[in-house]
Amino acid sequence: MSNFLRRSLTAVWIVVFILGGLWLHPLSFIITGLVLLTGTQYEYYMMIKSTGIKPQMWTGIIIGLAVYIMSTLIATGIVSVDGFLVIIPMISAILIAELYRKQEKPFDSLAHTFFPILYTAVPFSMFPFSAFGHLTKNVEGMHSILHNNFQFFSPGILIGFFVLLWINDTGAYIVGVTLGKHRLLERISPKKSWEGFFGGLIIAAAIAWCFSGYLGVLDRKQWTIISVIISITGTYGDLVESMLKRSTGVKDSGSIMPGHGGFLDRFDSVIISFPLVFLYISLFG
Question: What are the b/e assignments for 27-53, b being 16+ CB within 10 Å?
């Protein structure tokens, strides 16, 4: 099988898994976010372990899952925001446990135990608030494919986010390969070009302007602004992950997606982009 065909088949699987999971039902929505969080966090820890540093991987993953699950319970109204307080003793436990691990550089271990919680768990834990929370209460948005009993649930924000993110990535790749001459940040990512960046931005904005009516939740102007935010911050998300791979000396974060690498390789843009999109919608949506 050629690399192009392998990449294409994997890309189709990714689109079906993400859009299908987010759109099918609130439970599949929650599971989709959980899979993305676990996969990206696990790959981060494995990359760091390859450098000789030994973070508290499973403890960190458990805390990341706790943040996501608690965010889901709060967004759905099952528990109050005070539920986040359960994270405090878990963080304290990590600090105390490090005393007994006898690592040569314990604070390197601690730093890389905590960082992926901020880097991956917090961004993905915003997913439930975008679909169950206050962002969807006063607007007419997309409904899940299967019936559900949640009064306020719409996956429209995340569906639109991923569609525009992928359109931007595809547009940037096509324009970059065709016209790219001026490197965007060659020290970090030699293949990215300014031509590709602006090409992806313009294409994503045009699609947002023309097809925003199908996305719902927000109006045409807001989706167009969001497409620009996605293009800019998504590019930085990709560059940050490239910087991580260069610093750890690995080519891909994983191999679970043939032709595309790992979870971090495919969803690095989401980690920086979605929190800022979420912030924009919270303030101006």
Answer: ebbbebbbebbbbbbbbbbbbbeeeeb
